[in-house]
TrEMBL record:
Taxonomic source organism: Tribolium castaneum (Red flour beetle)
Signal peptide start and end residues: 1-18
PROSITE patterns for this protein: GLYCOSYL_HYDROL_F2_2
Limits of the Glycoside hydrolase family 2 immunoglobulin-like beta-sandwich domain: 199-298, 826-925
GO biological process: one example: carbohydrate metabolic process
Protein name: Beta-glucuronidase
Subunit relationships: Homotetramer.
Cell location: Lysosome
Similarity remark: Belongs to the glycosyl hydrolase 2 family.
Record-annotated Glycosyl hydrolases family 2 sugar binding domain positions: 32-197, 651-824
Function of the protein: Plays an important role in the degradation of dermatan and keratan sulfates.
């Protein structure tokens, strides 16, 4: 065997530009994420060159990473052409001062200009590829900095990809393009700050080879900075054992009896990765820099008929795909990524094409780990009008792509372009140069162009190593004529091979399919037709496989995607075998049989049991454990972690290792001390799990979805050296439900209530400037004394099942952010604020708790939105008087809703040096209530809102910033001013936006359907309320505490129980009224006597007299009046509505139809208006904002369908009706200005109707 020498490596990879290594924390490198909510504004197309200082960022937040187009309700954002501006503040730790500081964008679509502290630091003109800049001389250390990013999505004849601009008769500009996916734009992948030493590892290049059972790693390391360093290069296996090493920057590592990198199902151990650790050492052998690169040992070869990996022929079973999902568009979406890979493995695929641009590095990492082969495609799609400038941009994009992905074992083929117009003569010279450019950069992989032209009439095939062809017989060509597909496909593919004498892959074929459309005999757009099209292709593929030149088949598409609007696009491109929300069409099951049959035949893979008889086997659980915990929770302050001049913060969000307990031995993890071992080194079925996310829905396995008992999470992390001497904390915003945490084999903390944060100091446990390991167990078991409650039963099959009475799915996992943060030894532990008003003036009553030394002084300052100090004091407990204050008002009650001051607390030492600093948003407002009304700032309020859930596809309850922004945009679009956190506390990030937007909240404890009242249940209930009020006590948006939802208050034992619960709340906070959301009739309930507000749920026309809409008005009037009469308190209806199957229309209205939901709403509106006139009715909240998942039952068609929006946040007819209602109320009660698009409606005669 010929070993690759250094000179061959250099010639193989061409000229190396600066490195773009993926940022990883290490002993010598630190990393801070800038992901989160950024300020955002669109630029006017006619003034796209404006500076960011001229931009008004008021009020609009945008999640990063995410495309910006779909998070709102405004088509001007969706269809924007030109510049958009992003801005955010960030802190750079003082300890970074003597290091190089870099900012790295994994992708901005498309063009980007980056400024920091008013200085331009970077620009980049390609989407989907990373770029970075050193910013050491620009940032302020230990202080606040500002980053601004201009994002330009304009496509022209010379951009990659191409497009054109068209002036519209209306005066606007439209972006046109020929590619068939939506031109999403924005900061769509992570943004990080990271450090390197002044002498650092800039780049690593790796090429592997094999000889028999042995492997070779040919490597080259580029070092920037001083040349007075030595090098150690080590190769580690997955157990951490060093298997080879060298001390030169360029060399070859010999690996005896190597474990090769194999594709999924070609080997029992696919995707095996070694770790190449590069260390730079000074003259005293002290570590200067270190970087670790995952490496797979494999070799790709090809000839005129085949492609081999490790000298075995491969046959690609896969998909074309897109980075595409609801709300976030192209934005990085870890739960979706995990779901996608589970589906890829479920279906038996081993490959995909990154159509039609480079995918996120996180997606590529998992392809490496799981053994999924990748055809890696440039962002050039439908190239035409070939010019020198286009050619240079095309080549530059390929240079950046190959520089980024050159070391990936999963990348087996480079694709120069998708569907270029190679029928034109000009394409010949163009693609000759493009393909030559790729080969000058990398000769170790074959090159293709994905073509939709006919062979013999195009000009690129002569230069490529593999033909990749897109064929749509039975769809774009000869639609409906399925009988010709097999022959035509064979004819075209055979001709490609004959003309060029190289292997062929079919990279696209398929048919658009409307999920749920069934027609027999098969008819276009039906699921039957998609199956027929696939089946005909299968026959052609098998015939050509036997002829020896077809090496792969890739259906288009993995999942439905969004496109630009067109009459042939029913909500997008519907060729997916999965829907856009990743549920299977019939074709997914057909393709699964095909791919597993191929895997069995070609790779000798074991077929899944459920394919043998095509039904799910029963999974059994013989034991359920109930964990009991020690208590080490830091129980005083639980301030939201914020970076500042004195506090640093590192996110631990991302992909964690994850394992279920064995269903027959759920205690095994504890008994075997899994918290003391690396999950990768023991015989454990480990998968990747996104954090934050629920774990239930990211996979395809019912045993994961319905798991009962403990699961285990683990990951490694680095703690910066500079943190030594400070207090280091770990904080979980929520784990559902019970959690135990270990760090470096040491037990740290436990917590037994979901939806609420907990933290612990870990300063004495962590290793500074070194790697640490965190392990977390999460137990979702519910019992008679947990909050909420549940029970365990054993089914006749032997499986243990979790049962509960609440009507939402019992999602579990680490479902909100996990962070490490620091405080000084003396630090601000807690802040409590209450506010009041007197005329135009405001009062901020505050109390600060300090832990540590008492030898500090305090400065407390109140800053307005401009940053101007309006008042200050120097005591820990005091009152700030604010003359002519700007009050916090609810949305639409004032032209400036949600106004927030900043309460800045500083601790100073004897020399007036800053010791600690924390800034708390504060809204000045006062809540009052009596027997008939609730007021804010002495004005009566009327709640227009919803019950809601934290619920979405794949991530369940997991924090989802793009979804949150979408939800708030819909809430404001509809004219609502309030919601209830049904039926548990919501994420702090959700609550933060309620503050900013002026949305009022009924804040609810996680106690739902309480019954079986016991002392243990009471203590847990009160503990949950203590933690909830401690967390949310300072929020102006929280106007009511809800002690429980639908408790069984008809029982006598509930009286003493709720007397104690309500008293507990009022002892903690007397400034807000308290309610219990009741489903009992007022005359049988035992809680109402203790409440300040009566809240009731009533389902007239649904659970009560379904179909009888005529009873709704009298029934609602009767129940509401009775609550008021019995208890002499204001009344809110917190739930009413009807399940509705979107798209079901029946006239006259009939149950489950959209017409019926509208009629239900209309009848309730009439009742509400009568109650408002009677003076005690203070709010209406429909159930539900959006459809959500529940436990399985015959009354739930895929979940609870009472939403006025679908689960993916699209409106049903009722949403438009409710919008008219809420805006009419806002206009009538708050003098709000009605949106222009509602003026299209005819105003009714009723005083609250539009």
């Amino acid at each position: 065997m010929l070993l690759l020498t250094f000179s061959l490596i250099i010639s193989t990879l061409g000229k190396v530009h600066c490195g773009i290594l993926y940022p990883r924390a290490s002993e010598s490198r630190e990393l801070v994420s800038l992901d989160g909510l950024w300020n955002f504004a669109l630029a006017n197309f006619s003034n796209s060159v404006q500076n960011w200082q001229e931009v008004n960022f008021k009020g609009q937040k945008m999640p990063v990473p995410s495309s910006y187009n779909d998070v709102g309700t405004d088509k001007t954002v969706r269809d924007h052409v030109g510049l958009a501006w992003y801005q955010r503040k960030f802190f750079v730790p003082k300890s970074w001062k003597d290091q190089k500081v870099w900012i790295r964008f994994s992708s901005v679509c498309r063009g980007a200009e980056v400024s920091i502290n008013d200085r331009m630091v970077a620009n980049h003109d390609f989407g989907h590829l990373p770029f970075q800049a050193e910013i050491s001389s620009v940032v302020k250390f230990g202080a606040q900095n500002t980053v601004e990013v201009g994002v330009d999505n304009i496509l022209v004849a010379t951009t990659i990809p191409q497009g054109t601009l068209e002036a519209q008769p209306s005066g606007g500009i439209k972006q046109n393009y020929t590619f068939d996916f939506f031109n999403y734009a924005g900061i769509d992948r992570p943004v990080v700050l990271y450090t390197t030493p002044t002498t650092y590892i800039d780049d690593i290049t790796v090429i592997s080879d094999i000889d028999g059972t042995n492997g070779f790693i040919n490597y080259s390391v580029v070092v920037e900075g001083s040349d007075k360093v030595t090098t150690k290069v080590s190769l580690f296996d997955q157990t951490g054992e060093e298997v080879a090493s060298d001390t030169v920057l360029t060399g070859t590592l010999f690996v005896q009896n190597a474990t090769f990198w194999w594709p999924y199902l070609m080997d029992s151990n696919p995707g095996y990765l070694y770790s190449l650790q590069v260390q730079l050492l000074d003259s005293s052998d002290n570590l200067v820099d270190t970087y670790t690169l995952p490496v797979g040992i494999r070799v790709i070869s090809w000839d005129s008929k085949s492609v081999t990996i490790n000298k075995k022929p491969i046959y690609l079973r896969g998909f074309g795909r897109q980075e595409d999902s609801d709300f976030r568009g192209n934005g990085l979406d870890l739960p979706l990524i995990i779901r996608d890979y589970d589906l890829i493995k479920w279906v038996g695929a081993n490959a995909f094409l990154t159509s039609h641009y480079p995918y996120a590095e996180e997606i590529m990492d998992l392809a490496d780990e799981l053994g999924i082969m990748v055809i890696n495609e440039s962002p050039a799609v439908n190239t035409e009008k070939f010019s020198d400038q286009l050619l240079e941009n095309h080549k530059k994009s390929l240079t950046e792509l190959i520089q980024r992905d050159k070391n990936r074992p999963s990348v087996i083929i480079w694709s120069a372009a998708n569907e270029p117009r190679t029928q034109y003569n000009a394409s010949e010279a163009y693609f000759k140069e493009v393909v030559a450019h790729i080969k000058s950069l990398d000769t170790t992989r074959p090159v293709t162009v994905v073509n939709n032209q006919l062979p013999g009439s195009e000009y690129s095939g002569q230069f490529i190593d593999i033909v990749a062809c897109n064929i749509y017989y039975g769809w774009f060509s000869t639609a409906g004529d399925i009988d010709i597909i097999t022959a035509k496909v064979k004819e075209v593919v055979t001709k490609w091979n004959k003309v060029h004498n190289i292997p062929v892959i079919v990279t696209e074929y398929g048919a658009d399919t409307q999920e749920g459309l069934h027609l027999l005999p098969a008819y276009s757009w039906s699921e039957e037709y998609q199956n027929a099209v696939l089946s005909q292709h299968f026959q052609a593929f098998d015939q050509m496989r036997e002829e020896g030149f077809l090496i792969g088949e890739m259906v288009w598409n993995f999942a439905d995607i969004k496109t630009t609007q067109g009459i042939t696009r029913v909500g997008g491109n519907k060729k997916g075998i999965f829907t856009r929300n990743r549920q299977p069409k019939a074709s997914a099951h057909l393709l699964r049989k095909r791919y597993w049959a191929l895997a069995q035949s070609l790779d000798n893979a074991d077929v899944p049991d459920d394919l043998n008889d095509y039904k799910m086997k029963l999974l059994t659980i013989s034991l359920t454990i109930l964990s009991f915990f020690l208590d080490n929770v830091h129980s005083s302050g639980i301030l939201y972690p914020r970076a500042s001049e004195t506090r640093d913060l590192i996110s631990l969000d991302g992909l964690w290792n994850f394992a279920l307990t064995n269903t027959t031995d759920p205690m095994r993890g504890h008994l075997d001390n899994w918290f003391r071992v690396n999950f990768n080194t023991i015989d454990l079925d480990v998968q990747k799990m996104p954090v934050p996310s629920s774990y239930n829905d990211v996979g395809t396995d019912a045993s994961l979805r319905d798991h009962v008992g403990p699961v285990w999470y683990q990951r490694s992390f680095f703690v910066p050296k500079g943190w030594s001497g400070q207090k280091v904390w770990i904080r979980f915003s929520s784990v559902c439900r019970a959690a135990e945490v270990w760090i470096n084999d040491e037990w740290v903390v436990s917590h037994d209530i979901g939806h609420l944060p907990f933290q612990a100091e870990i300063s004495k446990i962590v290793n500074f400037g070194a790697e640490n390991t965190i392990t977390v167990t999460v137990d979702n078991t519910l019992t008679a004394t947990t909050i909420p409650q549940g029970s365990i039963s054993e089914l006749i099959s032997g499986r243990v099942k979790q049962s509960y009475t609440f009507d939402f799915f019992n999602y579990a996992g680490i479902d909100r952010p996990v962070v490490l943060y620091t405080t000084p030894a003396t630090y601000i532990d807690d802040i409590t604020v209450t506010t009041d008003i007197d005329g135009a003036n405001g009062f901020v009553n505050y109390s600060v708790v300090v832990e540590g030394s008492d030898k500090v002084t305090t400065k407390v300052s109140l800053l307005d939105k401009t940053g101007k100090e309006v008042v200050s004091d120097t005591v820990l407990n005091g009152i700030l008087f604010v003359q002519n204050a700007t009050f916090w008002w609810p949305y639409l009650m004032d032209s400036n809703p949600g106004y927030l001051y900043s309460l800045q607390v500083q601790l100073l030492d004897a020399s007036s040096n800053l010791v600690d600093k924390y800034t708390l948003p504060v809204g000045i407002r006062v809540i009052s209530w009596n027997s008939t009304s609730v007021t804010i700032n002495k004005k009566p309020i009327y709640l227009r809102g919803f019950g809601r859930h934290e619920d979405s596809d794949f991530r369940g309850k997991g924090l989802d910033l793009p979804l949150i922004i979408r939800d708030y945009n819909l809430i404001r679009w509809i004219g609502a001013n309030a919601y209830r956190t049904s039926h548990y506390p919501y994420a702090e990030e959700i609550m933060d936006l309620a503050e900013e937007f002026g949305i009022m909240i009924i804040d609810e404890s996680p106690a739902v359907n309480t019954e079986g009242y016991s002392n243990d249940l009471l203590e847990n209930h009160k503990k949950s309320l203590t933690e909830l009020i401690q967390r949310d006590k300072n929020r102006p948006s929280v106007i009511i505490w809800s002690a429980s939802n639908e408790p069984r208050t008809q029982y006598n034992s509930s009286e003493a129980y709720y007397k104690d619960v309500i008293s507990h709340i009022k002892n903690l906070d007397p400034t807000r009224p308290v309610t219990v959301v009741n489903a009992q009739q007022p005359d049988v309930d035992h809680s109402g006597q203790f409440l300040d507000i009566a809240s009731f749920n009533l389902y007239s026309g649904w659970y009560i007299s379904p179909g009888d809409v005529d009873i709704i008005i009298p029934h609602v009037l009767e129940v509401a009046r009775r609550w008021n009469k019995l208890h002499n308190v204001p009344v809110i209806i917190t739930e009413y509505g009807a399940d509705t199957q979107e798209g079901l229309h029946i006239l006259p209205s009939f149950i489950w139809s959209e017409e019926y939901q509208e009629e239900i709403l209309s009848k309730h509106f009439q009742a509400f208006d009568q109650l408002r006139d009677e003076g005690f009715f203070v709010g209406e909240m429909i159930w539900n904002f959006a459809d959500f998942k529940t436990d399985q039952t015959y009354t739930r068609v895929g979940g609870n369908k009472k939403g006025i929006f679908t689960r993916n946040r699209e409106p049903k007819a009722s949403a438009h009706l409710l919008r008219k209602r809420y805006w009419a109320l806002a206009q009538n009660l708050d003098n709000a200005k009605v949106p222009d698009d509602l003026n299209y409606y005819i105003f009714g005669t009723g005083k609250d109707e539009l």
